[in-house]
Write a structure and sequence with these properties.
InterPro entries: Aminotransferase_I/II_large, HisP_aminotrans, HistidinolP_aminotransfase, PyrdxlP-dep_Trfase, PyrdxlP-dep_Trfase_major, PyrdxlP-dep_Trfase_small. Pathway: Amino-acid biosynthesis; L-histidine biosynthesis; L-histidine from 5-phospho-alpha-D-ribose 1-diphosphate: step 7/9. Helix content is 35%, strand content 14%. With 353 residues, the protein is of the alpha/beta class. The strands form 3 sheets. It has a 7-stranded mixed beta sheet with strand order 2-8-7-6-5-3-4, with helices on both faces. Strands 9-10-12 form a 3-stranded antiparallel beta sheet. The longest helix has 24 residues, at 259-282. Bound molecules: pyridoxal-5'-phosphate. Pyridoxal-5'-phosphate binds at residues 32, 85-87, 111, 151, 155, 181, 183, 207, 209, 215, 220.
Amino acid sequence: MSKFWSPAIQSLVPYTPGEQPKIDGLIKLNTNENPYPPAPGVQQVIATFDAERLRLYPDPDCQALKQALATDQGLQPEQVFVGNGSDEVLALAFMAFLRQSQPLLLPQTSYSFYNVYIDLFGIEARHIPLHADFSINLDDYQGSNGGIIFANPNAPTGISVPLSEIHRLLERNTESVVIVDEAYVDFGAESATALVSEFPNLLVTQTFSKSHSLAGMRVGFAYGQAELIDGLERVKNSFNSYPLDMLAQLSAIAALEDQTYFNQCCQQIIATRDWTTTQLTALGFDVLPSHTNFVFASHPKVAGAELMQYLRDNRILVRHFTKPGIDNHLRITIGTETQMQALIDCLRNHPSL
Ligand SMILES: *Cc1c(COP(=O)(O)O)cnc(C)c1O
């Protein structure tokens, strides 16, 4: 606390990202980073970039990147927004669309950053519990509201909802913006991007951080009809004209161009995820059905907090949340086959497993 802080800042509880410790030989499975390097074209872009160009400002409209993202989905560049990571895209979307007199509807258990934005922007919210199997049922999202947001697949559960259910929600809920956060969609879920042309109130956010191995570059994006994208541009241009630097714009384009490499990485992670799920289940874990690059698992005999500490003592870092209802679970990022084998071997050596 400081007397110099604005009053609204005194009570903020910021988001806590997973730790990035400097421990030799650490197997890092705590922040859903991709274990594989970005596409070779990204290395090429960085290696051949002429630093002299940094004299100039980058393209404030990111036209080439928007064009590439639009082409990828058969949309127009006016239907694409890009930002400094999808966290920024989400923050701008909260500012642009969700500060309404009606409450925002969102899952009780989801990406915890949503609650940080809710507090930051003073938004009234109604949290809707997950079902006993940790799934989201969009039929629960009823009544007048100032917007709806959920992650699909959801985090940290990894469970996805089918596109048909999102379609049904959008047919019913036409008077407020529906944001679908698809940070993990490339690992096996159905994207709502296919519905953008049909529904003017749908915004779909995605990121290069997970499936394109570019968490360190900070590139996120959103698809929506031009009217929504315009709203985001208004807020963005009232805040920071240049959220994406030159290297980020070029690297994202290079990553997007190499579809073969992208598909290989995603397929490999999906295969390793399924292997990991089988192994954890054999050890007695309950593993939720995941369409992401992580699994969310609990063990009936050993508490999540204890398992996290045991793994950490063995230089394997996983994420544990203290939130009631999920505090017995571990969120385990899918790494390489070797890393996951090490995780399973380590767990097998636990005296109670
Ligand atoms: C990782 C993540 C994001 C943000 O990713 P960026 O790195 O900011 O693009 C957004 N939503 C969910 C659910 C995430 O897990």
